[in-house]
Amino acid sequence: MKKIILGLISMVFIGLAASAQWTIDSVNTVGVYPYKGTTSGQAVFSNGTEWNVFDANTNVHTFGNLSISRNYADVVSYGDKVYFGGGKFGSNADPQYTNMVDVYDGTTNTWSTLTLSKKRQVGGGGAAGNKLVFGGGIGRTDISGPVYLYATADIFDITTGVRTTGKLSKARSNISVGAAGNKIVFAGGWFWDMSYNIINSNAVDIYDVTTGLWTKTTLSIKRESMAVAVVGDEIIFAGGATNNGGTVKNVDIYNVSNDTWTTTNLPTARYGLKAVVVGTNAYFAGGLFDAIENEVDIYNTAADSWSTIYIPVSLSAFSMSVINDKIYFAGGYISGTSTYSNLVQIYDPATSTWSTEYLSIGRRDVAALTVVNKGYFAGGVYAYGYPVALTTKRVDILSTSSPVADFTASATTIIAGGTVDFSDQSNNNPTSWMWTFDGGVPSTSTVQNPTGIQYSNAGIFDVTLVATNTEGSSTITKTGYITVNAAPCAVPAGLSTTGIAATSATFSWDAVSGATKFKVSWKVAGNNPWTTTTTTSTSKMVTGLLVNTAYSWKVKTVCSNGISSAFSANQNFTTAPAKQGDFVTSGLAAYPNPVTDQFRLSVSSSMQLPVTCTVFNMQGSIVKEFVLSDYSQMVSVSDWSAGNYYIRIVDTQLNSAGLKLTKQ
Hints:
The structure is a single chain. The chain is mainly beta. The protein is 0% helix and 52% strand. The protein is built from no helices and 64 strands. The strands form 18 sheets. A six-stranded antiparallel β-sheet has the order 1-2-7-6-5-4, with no helix packed on it. It has a five-stranded mixed β-sheet with strand order 42-49-48-45-46, with no helix packed on it. A hairpin with a 4-residue loop joins strand 30 and strand 31.
C-alpha cells in the first residue's frame, strides 16, 4: 500500500470494501494499542507515543505523535472528540507523570492540547453535557518529589476548553467511570493506608454537569477494576477485584433519571472484564477468573434478569466489540500456550447464533473499535518473544456493510390514475426488499424495483423501503414523497363563432373528456360586466345582443370531480348592423334586469345619437320620456311602481329598438 509522507504525517488510501469484506491496513509502528477512542467518523489508536487515525468515510489513515510519550493515559471519547488525559512515563522505580491532555477533533481532523491541574496518571475520566472531567489519580509534583494520590477533579468546558477544579470525596486511583444524562459517576478504585498498603474503596462521587454540584455515596462492596456499561439511563458497575486479588460478582446499578441505586450479581465472578451493549442488554466477558471461562454473562435491563451464553472456542486476551448489533470476539490465545488465534467469533443477539470470520494473522491484545459499521482490529502480540513479545502493525478492517436503504421514483407528482416506477438505490448489496406504498395499488411489493404502482385518489402519500442483507436491515420512509393531484379539466379548444346576426350569435367548442357542463360568459367588449350561463352542450346560441356591437366571449370546463378548468382565451366578434327603419327587438340592453333602484341602459353603436326613449306600462300609458345623448346611461326607477314595463328607443334615422324591463 502506498504511503505519502507529509512531515510527521502519512496518508494511506484504501479501496472501499464490499459487503462483509476484510481489508488490511497498518498502524505506523508495531505494538499494542491500548489507548483508543472513536468519533462519529474516525477510529483513533495510540500506543502512548504515536496516534493513528482511520477515517471510516474517506478511508484515509493519518498518523503522528502525541505531545508527550507516556503510558496509562485515560481516554474519553465524546461527540466528535477523543481525549487522552495524563499518564506516566519513565521507569517504575522512578516514575514521572504528565499533565498533558491530547485532544483529537474529528470534525477538523486536528490535534490540540489541554492541561490538567496536577501531573498524574488519571484515576478516571468521563464526559456529559458540555463538561469533561478527569478525577483522582496518582502523580508527583516534581521529578524528585514524593508520589501522591489525588482527589482533584479537573473539569473542562468542552466548547471553550476552560478548566475549573473540584474534589472527589476520597483521593484514589483506578476509578471506574460511567456517564449518562447529566451525571458523571466515579466509582470504587484503590487508595493507600498510612503504611502505603493498597486498600480498595467503595466511594462513589457523582458530578451533575447541569448544577455543577457533587454528591457522594458508596458501592455495595469495596473494589476496583470493574466493567462499566451504560444502557439508557442506567450505569452498570459490574464485577471487580478485592484487596486480596479475589474476584467478585457484585453489580451496582445507578439510575440517573430517578437517582436510585440497585444491586444484583454476575453469574460469574471476575475482574478486569470487558463490557458491550446491544439494545437493552449488557454483555460481560473476559477478565481474570479463578479458572478459565468462556462464559458471557448477559444482563437484561428491561427484565432485570441474567442469562449466559458460551463462546464456542475458549481463548484469553481477546477483544470484544459490537458491529452492526453483533458482538465480535477477536483474536486471543489458548491459555498456557504460545498459540495465537486469528479466529473472530461473532454472536448475533437477534438470532442467538454464532458465526466466524478470521483476522489476517493470529494475535492477542488486539485493539478493537467500531465506526460507521466498520470494525477496526489494530496491532497486538502475534508471537512469543523474550524479553519482549513480538508485536504487529497490522490493522484488519471489516466492513460489515448492512444496507443503507434509499430509492428514487420515476415521478413524485402525478395525476390521479397515473402510475409510478420505483428504483432501489440502497448501498451494500441488499438481498431482499420490502416496499410499502401508502395509497398505492398494490400497497406492498418485495421485488427490487417495483413498477406500475397506481395511485387512483388525490392526496400526499408516504413510501417505505426495508432493505436487508445477511448483515442486517435498513429502513427509510420518505414522508409525503408522492403527490397525487386530481385529474384536471382541460380548457376547451376549437372555439368558433358562427351565425352572427344583428342581435344573436352561436358559440361552439370541442368536447372535453370528463366534462359535465360548460360555463359560457360574454360581454360588450371593453370594461363591461360579463354575463354567464351554463350548458351541457358544446355550443351556445346567445340572443338579445346589441346590433353592430363588438363582443367578447369565453368558455371553461366543469368536470365530474367538481373542479374547473381555466377559461379559454377571449374570442371576439361584432354583431351585424341594423337596416335603416328596422325595428330591432333587442337593439338595446338593460342591466340589471329585474331592477330595484336604477339600471344602466345601453344602446347599440349602430344607433344615431341622440336617441329618444319612451317607457310604457303594461296598460300602454307613457310613464317616462327622456333623451339619451350617450350609448350608455344610468336610469333611476325609484319612483316607479313594481311591475313590467316596455322601453322603446328611436334614433335620428328612425331606427328603433325595444325591450321589456321588470321593476321589483
